[in-house]
């Protein structure tokens, strides 16, 4: 069982589903119109009222999730939480209410997950397609073929802002529509060349916004559910004629969603005009479906993050043999340390692979450059929190440990640091280490046992281990090394 929680700028949504061996089936859905994006004040902070609405909703989602056993949950927050200046205040409250971590994902990661949901729903392996998702706070445009993404861009234009800025007080005018569409075309101007029809065969609209507009076209006499520019312009003219959002009576659209549909309509017209789209098909798949598919792929050992790390290494021309040697050795040592959080093992491995990417910047202080790149690069599939974790591990590979501060209060993180430091030390000194050569454990202190025959083969190891003993002593951790007969 898998669950996806989406903290969108307009609505919070929950999908619970299961994989039947071929497809993902949604068993339960929930949606609440929290309007988080409209809850930003003039300083860019979430208001107490908006945070209260969000927390109450997440408490109800927690109750729903608690009724299912053996369920994997992933919660993602999108544009409004990305830009909220007091997100650090809001997230702990939200996580406590939901009972699960909340990942603030980048626009690019949002686009990847949207495309993942669409591509698995369509299941057309060779189709070249354009996927557009118009959300409350941002719009994602993705170009791909089958399951593979060729290009993804996220733009800070969404239905909430477009509705409030260009149709203030619910007034709909031709000038307002023209300004709204022009703003979209201006934002897309630099990126539009990469998304023209020559690169794709079919266009899909994955968001609730596109599906709502499609329903409005079908149920209000503008034609069938297929979205085209003439139909969108006809709907625009109808809205202008009515003059006010509260005067619109659009069959198939709930009254509380009409404002968002008007904002989305202006964005969609701009997209059609700037990207030369003729026809778009709405599709019942997107971010939440993508999140569930991502969980399923991870559970079946087809984690997209593995490929992303290798792409990252290629980008910075890292030495793959050295990277793999450090990663495998760090994983071996970490396993011996018997962490309680086994999920950390993957991050130890990935950190080992990426520990030298900073050499592309400078050999001096390369671990600092590596740490910066790991934290700030767009590494597909990873959240900001995951990249910060790996960044700290990479930073810890050499030098003093005082820079890690309170992080060493987490025993499992400390074991991860120890594993990576020893792995990098042995790899850099070209010491070949077999699992039978080492025994290590960490409780109140560190105890490392090595076979005497191995120590005799590597006389310089004593020097490097003495340095390590001194580094750990500086942070109050005893480090004892013993050489035992073979």
UniProtKB/TrEMBL annotation:
Cited Pfam families: Ppx-GppA (PF02541), Ppx-GppA_III (PF21447)
- Entry-linked SUPFAM superfamilies: Actin-like ATPase domain, HD-domain/PDEase-like
Q: Which residues form the Ppx/GppA phosphatase C-terminal domain?
A: 305-468
Q: Which CDD domains match?
A: ASKHA_NBD_EcPPX-GppA-like
What Gene3D superfamilies does the entry give?
3.30.420.40, Exopolyphosphatase. Domain 2 (3.30.420.150), Hypothetical protein af1432 (1.10.3210.10)
Q: Has keyword Hydrolase?
A: yes
Q: Specify the protein name.
A: Ppx/GppA phosphatase family protein
Q: Could you tell me the keywords of this UniProt record?
A: Hydrolase
Q: Where is the Ppx/GppA phosphatase N-terminal domain?
A: 18-297
């Amino acid at each position: 069982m898998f669950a996806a929680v989406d903290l969108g700028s307009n609505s919070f949504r929950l999908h619970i589903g299961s994989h039947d061996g071929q497809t993902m089936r949604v068993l339960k859905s929930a949606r609440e119109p929290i309007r988080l994006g409209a809850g930003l004040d003039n300083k860019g902070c979430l208001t107490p009222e908006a945070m209260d609405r969000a927390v109450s909703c997440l408490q109800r989602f927690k109750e729903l999730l608690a009724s299912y056993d053996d369920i994997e949950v992933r919660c993602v927050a999108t544009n409004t939480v990305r830009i909220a200046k007091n997100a650090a205040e809001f997230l702990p409250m939200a996580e406590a209410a939901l009972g699960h971590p909340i990942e603030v994902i980048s626009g690019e990661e949002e686009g990847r997950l949207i495309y993942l949901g669409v591509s698995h729903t369509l299941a057309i392996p060779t189709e070249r397609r354009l996927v557009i998702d118009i959300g409350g706070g941002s719009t994602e445009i993705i170009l791909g073929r089958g399951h593979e993404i060729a290009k993804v861009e996220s733009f800070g234009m969404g239905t909430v802002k477009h509705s409030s800025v260009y149709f203030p007080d619910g007034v709909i005018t031709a000038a307002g529509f023209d300004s709204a569409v022009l703003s979209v075309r201006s934002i897309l101007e630099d990126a539009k060349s990469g998304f023209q029809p020559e690169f794709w065969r079919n266009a899909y609209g994955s968001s609730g916004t596109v599906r709502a507009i499609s329903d409005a076209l079908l149920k209000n006499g503008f034609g069938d559910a297929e979205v085209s520019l003439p139909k969108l312009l006809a709907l625009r003219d109808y809205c202008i004629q009515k003059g006010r959002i509260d005067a619109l009576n659009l069959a198939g659209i709930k009254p509380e969603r009409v404002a968002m549909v008007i904002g989305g309509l202006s964005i969609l017209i701009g997209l059609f005009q700037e990207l030369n789209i003729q026809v778009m098909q709405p599709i019942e798949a997107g971010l939440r479906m993508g999140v569930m598919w991502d969980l399923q792929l991870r559970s079946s050992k087809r984690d997209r993050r593995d490929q992303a790390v290798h792409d990252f290494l290629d980008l910075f021309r890292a030495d793959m043999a050295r990277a793999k040697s450090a990663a495998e050795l760090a994983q071996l040592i970490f396993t011996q340390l018997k962490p309680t959080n086994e999920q950390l093992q993957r991050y130890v491995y990935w950190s080992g692979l990426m520990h030298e990417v900073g050499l592309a910047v400078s050999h001096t202080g390369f671990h600092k450059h590596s740490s910066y790149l790991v934290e700030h690069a767009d590494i597909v599939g990873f959240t900001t929190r995951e990249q910060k974790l790996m960044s700290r591990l990479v930073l810890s590979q050499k030098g003093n440990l005082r820079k890690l501060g309170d992080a060493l209060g987490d025993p499992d993180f400390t074991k991860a640091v120890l594993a990576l430091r020893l792995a990098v030390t042995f790899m850099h000194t070209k010491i070949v280490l077999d699992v039978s050569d080492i025994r290590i454990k960490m409780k109140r202190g560190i105890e490392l046992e090595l076979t005497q025959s191995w120590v005799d083969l590597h006389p310089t190891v004593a020097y490097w281990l003495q340095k390590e003993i001194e580094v750990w002593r500086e942070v109050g951790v005893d480090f004892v090394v013993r050489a035992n007969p073979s």
